[in-house]
Amino acid sequence: MDLYEHQARHLFEEHGIPVPRAEVTDSPGGARAIARRLGGRVVVKAQVRTGGRGKAGGIGFAADPAAAELTARRILGMDIKGHRVGAVTLAEPVDVAEEFYVSYVLDRTTGGFVAIASAQGGMEIEEVAATRPEAVARIPVDRAEGVSSAKAAKIAHAAWLPPQTADVLVRLWQVLVREDALLVEVNPLVRTARGRILALDGKVTVDDNARFRQARWGGWDAEHQDPLEAAAADRGLTCVRLDGEVGVIGNGAGLVMSTLDVVAGCGARPATFLDIGGGASARVMADGLSVVLGDPAVKSVLVNVFGGITACDAVAEGIVAAVDTVRPTKPLVVRLDGNNAARGRAVLGERAHPLAEQATTMDAAARRAAELAHTA
Question: pTM of this prediction?
């Protein structure tokens, strides 16, 4: 569960990490009132669970409360990488002298955590790591030992950060542990012209298995959840909206993620992707197709299913029933493999829906879905 920036900021404040004064609102009038309380000049930031807000126009500077209202009106309702902006945060501006990057993230290969830090903050850390790998320090953190003051000082020294950032590193680790997080990130962590250390932006990903302990975020999240993601959740499905044109449906997170990579490798951009899980009944397939086809950005749909416990002929029968129920208006490419794949392909061939075609490999299916999306 990814928290919104203002939620991450709230956690930082609770754990003693210094942050600028800020408030969140979902209305232009509220933005004017907040700007007045904060002294007039503010930074207005879209609240969406994705990066690239600045490039998309989701961050603006306002010189006074009236300008803050106008800026909020422009940003609210925007679509940023498939995420509708339902709220904005208004924060007091900061006179920044230096920007840094700090985070703790789960290392899934070892089961431990790693501290990632750099004196090159304010940029995408992936870009820094690719162009200047020596500028990014990666320090393993033992789960049992945690981050003491000595460990934090070691991390700061390795990343060429000012010594006073060590206290933030200790407190950021406390956020991770106490809030059941898999990732905590501050980008940028800044030193102001007066020497203060402040967290200007933050990201926190809470372990989904700990939702029962982190229920305080549920109400706001439901209120501002993407409508397609909410529709999928109501049907017991997992769906994520991206900013592309090829919708992807698959069974299993690993297969779906691999499919996204292959689609991108074919020169197309994945759009809404949906994991139907271990089952692919007619009802599940109908629900999945209706959700993905409900994204107006989707130009074609790639259904990539590997039959395991659920046989491919059952999957195919589900797809046939689904297309008859949903009545798609966009082309579908179906790739079936695994248990009873030949029979499943025969079922689809017998139905011969005019908008549904088959491919025998994932690469061929992705190429065809990309072609259909580009010619739509």
Answer: 0.64
